[in-house]
Amino acid sequence: MPENEQNDKPVNNYIKYSALGFQMIAIIGVFTFVGYKIDESAHHDTKWVTAMLSLIGVFASLYVVIRSVKN
């Protein structure tokens, strides 16, 4: 393997995994925002929809990360 390809591999991994972190933040943020808007429009005292959708967002983002790391 040429020397420049060996040096590029850690940089590519760094970019790949940092992008996954931002993708996780985006997925969780979108789910939480949608839950917040639903709770706000329904005038709920307890923000159950926000809590549930943010938890679903965490699981969805973990699924995306695990699927990406397998490939």
Domains, number: 1
Number of strands: 0
| Rg (C-alpha, Å) | 18 Å
End-to-end separation: 22 Å
Q: Please write the string of helix (H) and strand (E) elements.
A: HH
Ranges with pLDDT <50 over ≥5 residues? none
The outline comes out as elongated
Mean pLDDT: 89
Give the helix level as a range of percent: over 70%
Structural class: mainly alpha
Main sheet summary: none
Work out the helix count: 2
**Fraction in beta strands:** under 5%
Transmembrane segments: 14-36, 48-66
InterPro entries: ATPase_put (IPR032820)
Organism: Mucilaginibacter auburnensis
Protein name: Putative F0F1-ATPase subunit (Ca2+/Mg2+ transporter)
Description:
The chain has 71 residues and is mainly α. The protein has one domain (20-70). 89% of the residues lie in helices and 0% in strands. The chain has two helices and no strands. The protein has helices at 3-42, 48-70. Helix 1 packs antiparallel against helix 2. The relative contact order is 0.14. The model has no long low-confidence stretch (mean pLDDT 89). The chain crosses the membrane at residues 14-36, 48-66. It comes from Mucilaginibacter auburnensis. It holds the Pfam family ATPase_gene1.
Core attributes:
71 residues; elongated; mainly alpha
Question: Could you give a short description of this structure?
Answer:
By secondary structure, the chain is mostly helical.
